[in-house]
Amino acid sequence: MVTDNLRRVRALANHVDPARGVPAHHRPGFTVAVLGAAGGIGQPLSLLLKRTALVEHLHLYDIANVAGVAADVSHVNSDATVRGFTGPAQLGAALAGAHLVVIPAGIPRKPGMSRDDLFNVNAGIVRDLVSACAKHCPKAVLNIISNPVNSTVPIAAEVLKKQGVYDPKRLLGVTHLDVMRARVFASEALGADPNDIDVPVVGGHAGVTILPLLSQVTPAPPSGAPLTETQIEHLTERVRNGGTEVVNAKAGAGSATLSMAAAAAEFAAACLRALAGHRNVTVCAYVASDAVKSLPFFATKVRLGRSGVEHNYGLPTRGLSPFEKSELEKLVPELRASIDKGVAFAGGDEAHRRRAAQQRRAAAGTAGNSDVRASGVSQIPA
Ligand SMILES: NC(=O)c1ccc[n+]([C@@H]2O[C@H](COP(=O)([O-])OP(=O)(O)OC[C@H]3O[C@@H](n4cnc5c(N)ncnc54)[C@H](O)[C@@H]3O)[C@@H](O)[C@H]2O)c1
Question: Distance between CA atoms of 374 and 143, rounded to whole angstroms?
Answer without folding.
Answer: 30
